[in-house]
Design goal:
Elements: E1 2-3, E2 16-19, E3 38-40, E4 43-45, E5 53-58, H1 59-66, H2 72-75, E6 80-83, H3 86-92, H4 97-111, E7 134-140, E8 157-159, E9 165-170, H5 182-198
Parallel strand pairs: 1-7
Antiparallel strand pairs: 2-5, 3-4, 5-7, 6-7, 8-9
Length: 227
């Protein structure tokens, strides 16, 4: 399955919708993710993903996506299916045809102005489907996160604001990570950091700490809210 992270802007609005295996609309595809959670019924939640999740769209949306840079249909051609009718399309992607037809009917009612009580998708982000052919593109959920912290390179060296490694400084674990998995981050980068930190290297020049004069005259707690 294609990674959900490959979604282009062209895939987040218009005559396109995300459906689960039973034909239910899953969530508002026009919003981004927050730590794996998506905006559902006004609340950031983890969607109930099914085994098969498809973006379903019509011919005009297919042409729009096909002309975009990094066209996902070229990257993952095996995940693209088409059908002259919704029923034919559903049969090719192992989706309940009745459920998909009902899901599309719900989509069109919301596009026409009905309040979306399932996904909170605004009607202005939706457009009615043409009368075939129809397409489906299989995707899987994913999310990336970072706990902040310093950037690091493959040697676990911490990268400074100028883009160069900071001498003798290394990092490991999820701090500074942009991928999933705390233990792999700790083990893999911990090993790299330890190996490179222990390697012989030229000593750093002595660092002179400049003397700073303080002119603080108040007593903490008497001139601020600490009192």
């Amino acid at each position: 399955m294609a990674d959900f992270g490959i979604l282009l802007e062209a895939m987040k609005g218009g005559s396109i919708e995300l459906f689960g295996q039973g034909g239910d609309r899953i969530y508002n595809i026009t919003t981004g993710a927050r730590y794996g959670k998506y905006l559902i019924n006004g609340k950031w939640q983890i969607p109930h993903w099914t085994d098969y999740n498809y973006l379903v769209f019509d011919q005009k949306k297919f042409e729009e996506i096909s002309t975009a840079e990094n066209n996902p249909f070229e990257l993952y051609p095996e995940e693209l299916a088409s059908g002259a009718t919704i029923e034919e399309l559903a049969s090719k992607i192992e989706m309940d045809p009745t459920g998909l037809a009902q899901g599309l009917d719900e989509f069109h009612r919301i596009a026409a102005g009905e309040v979306d009580t399932r996904c909170d998708r605004p009607a202005e982000t939706m457009a009615a489907f043409d009368d075939g052919p129809f397409y489906a593109f299989r995707i899987m959920p994913c999310y990336q996160y970072t706990f902040g912290g310093p950037r690091r390179n493959a040697k676990a060296e911490v990268i400074g604001i100028d883009g160069s490694p900071i001498p003798h400084l290394y990092g490991a674990g999820v701090c500074g990570s942009s991928t999933l998995g705390g233990w792999p981050e700790a083990i893999i980068f911990g090993k790299a950091a330890g190996k490179n930190a222990a390697a012989e290297k030229e000593a750093l020049p002595a660092y002179e700490v400049a003397k700073v004069e303080s002119n603080i005259t108040y007593t903490p707690g008497t001139e601020n809210d600490l009192a």
